[in-house]
Amino acid sequence: MSNIFVTSFIDLSSIEGTSRRDFSFYLDQGRHVLQYCKHVVMFTETKLFNQILDLRRGYYPNEIINYRKEGISEVSAGNNSFTILPTSLGDLPDNHLSERITQLRGNILNMNQLKDTTNFLLVQWAKFYFLKQVYDNSVSENITWIDFGITHVAQYPDLIAEFQFTDKIKLLSLRPTYLYEIDHPEFLKYFNGRTGGGVWGIPRDKFIIFYDLFHMTKQEVLDRGYAPLEDEIVTVIRIRNPHLFQLYYGDYCDIIRNFNNHIRCSDFTLFRMSIGYAITNDDFETISSMGCDLYNTEMCGRITLPPDARRYMYRDTIRALRRIGNSEKAEEIEKFSMN
Questions:
Q1: How would residue 297 be classed by pLDDT, with cut points 50, 70 and 90?
Q2: Is 339 exposed, middle or buried (0-12, 13-18, 19+ CB in 10 A)?
Q3: Domains defined along the chain, listed by start
Q4: Average pLDDT, stretch 167-177?
Q5: What own/partner pairs with CB < 8 Å and gap ≥ 24 does 217-220 have?
Q6: How many Å from the N-terminal Cα to the C-terminal Cα in the chain?
Q7: What residues contact 96, with CB distance under 8 A and at least 6 apart?
Q8: Distance separating alpha carbons of residues 146 and 200, to the nearest angstrom
Q9: CA 79, CA 129: separation in Å to the nearest integer?
Q10: What span, in angstroms and rounded, lies between the C-alpha atoms of 212 and 218?
Q11: What are the pLDDT digits (tens) for 245-269?
Q12: pTM above 0.90, yes or no
């Protein structure tokens, strides 16, 4: 399946004159995207072109680089190419909402006042604007958003090269979430951190649906009196439209290494908490999905759980599989867990 990675960077530290992380920090983090993402379209400020291009050429000295200052045209679906395109804060499509965003920022009680500025929200919301340009000018079967500074939180960037895509939108779920939660009038009063915003794998035939849902939901939450980050909006979308998504599980640091529906964690505290929350909500499908991802990770040799931990970790999965009528898989995992 052909894939294009899309990323962007706007130097808000220089624009805002604050102590937020500067371009040198993000360039150091972004080298992993430039190294491991073979086919990339990047939107950034023209003043940053040369430093980014120099770094990319260090990894792919013989690559043909599409260097445009006029804007996007056709993007080929080759296996190895880099297209760099101009953008700026003033180009972003939601600038007309700046005053409204500023008015609403205080309604989110745990907002990071240094990081989560009006400009930052405009940049985060613009992910769909950049993705749409690539969608309109390519024939790639899959389009993947990846944050330029993703390795600030994510581990094992070399595994980007192993990403496997499906016919559904792939998202990181940090915790099971339910319709009654997102429908609560105060759900958006806090940044909840239920969905990863740094990597999205989007099949071409699902993109316009996702794009339209984002803009409709964004307007809805603004009307409710909140201006949240894009991943909070995506949480609402995925809970209302579960048929569009294939979730994988973990913490922010796992957003790359668990992309292929593996469960690899520095510890399994969050995994156990998620299973427990799903049990509380009688969500046997999620319990089964998470447990099967863990089982498949062991079967392909990515992790090896100690026998006692294995029995404990699979206990609820086996019960859930039986509840949803998959006794054959339950027996398979039960037999494995006793080894």
A1: very high
A2: exposed
A3: 3-261 (3.90.550), 263-339 (no CATH)
A4: 96
A5: 218/125
A6: 37
A7: none
A8: 7
A9: 23
A10: 10
A11: 999 999 999 999 999 999 987 668 8
A12: yes
